[in-house]
Amino acid sequence: MLLAHAIGCERSWLYAHSTEELREVWWIHYGRYLHERLNGKPTQYITGRQEFYGREFRVTHDVLIPRPETEHLIEAALKTGARKTLDVGTGSGAIAVTLALETGALVIATDISTSALKVAKENASRLGAGVEFVACDLANALTGSFDLIVSNPPYVPSTEALPREVRDFEPDAALYGGEDGLAIYRRLIPEAERLLKPGGWLIMEIAYQGGDAVSAMLTGWSEVGVIPDLAGLPRVIRAQRSR
Q1: Tens digit of pLDDT for each residue in 76-133?
Q2: Which contiguous run of DSSP H or E holds residue 57?
Q3: CATH T-level fold of 62-240
Q4: For residue 205, how many other CB atoms are within 10 A of its CB?
Q5: Cross-strand partners of 42
């Protein structure tokens, strides 16, 4: 991947031209990328892109790298049939853009980081997704009602040790959710209750150990359920606002 990025070609080109000598400029770029990777910089930040739900998204240090596990959230969201969706803490825009393109629904996305919103807007524009973006803390600038609210909030406890590729390069604001990792859920769930239509759905990604704690915050909601990932670990929680 790094060599293809250094040359500016697809990986298939490397296989088709396996006997070709590397040019000096290719070596220079490749050496720099290898040095960055050996120092822990994630490949996605070196190449500036990451695939999510079959589409390529631009990523920078200002946004969390989209993970394959978050596709479980997309699958749960698609089952709701929502026509008006809010993505809270959009980051790269991967969730909002994907839902807009997959459903044709009206999607609004928020983030407290204007730098992240710039990346998300670029992704939406490049992929042709009609997403509206709002700079605010969670959803405090919004009114109205939604069929669906989705979020992949920061949920890592501030005391947890992370691999250096994550700790030293991905934005703290997108990773850490307070001392117990639940700070954003405590604020987001009441916001969702304010903005969701009766019968509307709240779907959030959670840490593998966070299912019980987040479920306990959803007292008064219906259809509360935890969805595991392919490893069988809790990954997504969904709940329906009481009618």
Answers
A1: 999 999 999 999 999 999 999 999 999 999 999 999 999 999 999 999 999 999 999 9
A2: strand 55-58
A3: Rossmann fold (3.40.50)
A4: 23
A5: none
